[in-house]
Amino acid sequence: MNVSVIIPALDEEDTVADVVRACLADDPLEVLVIDADSTDATASRAAAAGADVRNWRDILAEEPRPGKGESLWRGVAAAKGDIVVFVDADLESAAPGMVAALTAPFVDPGVDMVKARYQRSLNGHPTGGGRVTELTAKPLIKQFFPELAHIDQPLGGEYALRRDTALELPFVEGYGVEAGLLVDVGKQGTVAQVDLGTRVHRNRPLHELAPMAEVVARTLLARAGVIAPVAQRPPLKGKI
């Protein structure tokens, strides 16, 4: 089982190298950093840490659209592994073993996606999920997709997919990508969870969280058929 790690990155020079090194410790087939035109040292630090750094413009001919979903979509196109593992570049608690943990459940051929289960830490205190997760994603998932209500971190950036599955899925633009992928896989496949302990991400201010919450809400409402579909990239199957 070959594993490709995909790290979407935009101006994350302070953390990306540690994330890359933690992923490489589990000896995957490749660690791809998809650089979305960073203006800082993200690309050079990721390369120095051992990643295969790809500018997102060099992967597919289409002009990139803003947002995380675009980087993940292009990362899947570039990946060579049977399993793709997504890891956020701003993860401050990256540690060896997380890639191995996220890929272990795929020994069961019925598993299509593996999500990380973890506690977030703020000032040394566990907080469960982030504010967008607890106040937006989980209530909407419970209402419209109760079969997925047990997923502890529906918006978490550490998760894995069979690449064949990823190639058949649309990727929502921006920060709605995790919600869209979870619902789409959950409708037709099996989602497993693995415990990764306590994770530390950069704590974002409210003015950054409000647009994220709006995108997540629109994605989930669109998947529920309540509003019109959101902007997304089509499945890559047949395209690459």
TrEMBL record:
Asked if the record carries the keyword Cell membrane, the reply is: no
Q: Name one GO molecular function term.
A: glycosyltransferase activity
Annotated EC? 2.4.1.266
Keywords from UniProt, A to Z, are: Glycosyltransferase, Magnesium, Transferase
Name the chemical reaction catalysed here.
Answer: (2R)-3-phosphoglycerate + UDP-alpha-D-glucose = (2R)-2-O-(alpha-D-glucopyranosyl)-3-phospho-glycerate + UDP + H(+); an NDP-alpha-D-glucose + (2R)-3-phosphoglycerate = (2R)-2-O-(alpha-D-glucopyranosyl)-3-phospho-glycerate + a ribonucleoside 5'-diphosphate + H(+)
Record's PANTHER family?
GLUCOSYL-3-PHOSPHOGLYCERATE SYNTHASE, UNDECAPRENYL-PHOSPHATE 4-DEOXY-4-FORMAMIDO-L-ARABINOSE TRANSFERASE-RELATED
Please give the name of this protein.
Glucosyl-3-phosphoglycerate synthase
Q: Which organism is it from?
A: Corynebacterium curieae
